[in-house]
Amino acid sequence: MSTTPAPLVQRIGVPGLSEAIAARGVPLTVAVKANGFVFVSGLPPIDPATGQMVNHTLEAQLRRCIANLTLALEAAGATLADTVMVTLYVTNVGFFGHLNRIYRECFGALPPARTCISIGSWPFEADIEIEAIAVAAPTPR
């Protein structure tokens, strides 16, 4: 019996989320799995069920971003606990205290490495975006 080896790089689609991002004309793959790592593209607080941006409060936006990150990681065979690096992009570093509180709730006592970057311009009606790198079981070859 012959088996076809898995590709070295897998582009991972996330039902609802991939379509919502593509509908906004953004050419990206939500997650890419390569050599046991999962690279998750910057994800805005877009609701995959409606395709609409969640732009109420910063807390709602960050929780939606982390929910989207969770969906992307799960689609690639990983979880938030497997995350090793997170980058947050925010429109205002004055949000830092609020971000830390919510981040602690979501990632627990031993969070991954993190960078928070303030941006000056944004193509969406949101205040935050999150990207991450995680580890996952290697794809069988």
Short description:
The chain is an alpha+beta fold. It contains three helices and six strands; from the N terminus they run βαββαβαββ. It is globular, with a radius of gyration of 15 Å.
Our measurement of the CA-to-CA distance between the termini, rounded to an integer number of angstroms, reads 14 Å
Overall domain count: 1
**Spatial strand arrangement across the major sheet:** 1-2-3-6-4-5
If you compute it from the alpha carbons, what radius of gyration comes out, rounded to the nearest whole angstrom? 15 Å
Q: pLDDT average, as an integer?
A: 89
CATH superfamily: RutC-like
What does the main sheet amount to? 6 strands, mixed
How much helical structure, as a percent, in the residues? 25-40%
Number of strands: 6
Give the overall shape: globular
User: Structural class given helices, strands, pairing?
Assistant: alpha+beta
Proper CATH architecture: 2-Layer Sandwich
Looking at the structure, the CATH topology is 60s Ribosomal Protein L30, Chain: A
Kindly provide the name of the CATH class: Alpha Beta
- Please count the helical segments: 3
Strand content range: 25-35%
Pick out the low-confidence regions. none
Tell me the series of helices and strands, N- to C-terminal: EHEEHEHEE
Protein architecture, described:
The protein has helices at 17-23, 58-75, 96-107; strands spanning 9-12, 31-34, 37-43, 83-90, 113-118, 128-135. The protein is built from 3 helices and 6 strands, in the order E-H-E-E-H-E-H-E-E. Helix 2 packs parallel to helix 3 (96-107). The protein has 141 residues and is an alpha+beta fold. It starts with 8 loop residues before the first strand and ends in a 6-residue tail after the last strand. The radius of gyration is 15 Å and the shape is globular.
